[in-house]
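Please check this today:
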Amino acid sequence: MPTEIHPMLATSISEPFDGPDWLFEIKWDGYRAVAFVENGKVRLVSRNQNELTHRYPELKDIAKSVKAKTAILDGEVVALDDQGRPSFSLMQQRTGFRPGGRRGAANSDVPVLYYAFDLLYLDGHDWRKVPLEERKNKLASTLVTGDSLRYSDHHERQGKALFEMARAKDLEGILAKRRDSTYQERRSSDWLKIKIRHRIECVIGGYTQPEGSRAHFGSIVLGLYDRQDRLIHVGQAGSGFNQKSLGELWKMLQQRETKQKPFYGEVEALRKVTWVKPELVAEIEYAEWTEGASTGSGPKLRAPVFLGLRDDKAPKECRLDELKNAELKTQN
């Protein structure tokens, strides 16, 4: 039985597709974990080989739900919201992780469960060279699902329909996996991930210092106005730029530098921030928003990407309510 597994990783693509050679799954928005089952106990290990078992004591009974003496499962530790959807924000609360890289007190009142989607080893037999479809069928028959363990099912052929269902339910996205693919402990094009993204306009209130070979600035510091017309920090966007747009925006930011902080409340940033007058509006693509870490700190955009500047929208039109209402619209 292997003692170390480096999880197989998916390659990102932008559009969903259909195909008879593919299986399609929901992309669970949690923490990837490999489960080693042995001697009636389970050991959970992250994709970076960090021990996770002690963080999730309610998952200790996973071993009792696996009809085998020894097994290795691949899956995701997930926190579900009150509608049964995976919530990365709840996972952050559970682990104590805070936007900006900080770690606070973990909230053990947020329950988690384990979604198993692959079988790598079972009672003396290595299944990594067995085609995915066979691995999943065996996995389904090996698990006894319950409160702490669930089987991540798949859909055949119809990737576009699953993607639209995931979009309607405001999920993170889907995965497409070749039904005959073996388990490769690396990133592979045999597994593809297609994410669902959202867009919003944000005010630029500052920028962080560049790092490494990056020129001009590291990321732009983003904000939205609340009902009291206070600019609330909602995150940083450091991707989406090319050399031309980086240089052009840099000139505009320099012209607006100020010593006065434009934000109300805390700004959660790992690097030094240079403030700018809140005059520029950026269109931002993001995966979801998560709750802020402290009083006066707003929700944070997860995985924000800069798409461009908007000169057709005034900064005061960029409202915090627009972000918080986005999820409500998808529920109705």
About this structure: The first helix runs from residue 88 to 95. Residues 98-102, 327-332 have pLDDT under 50 and may be disordered.
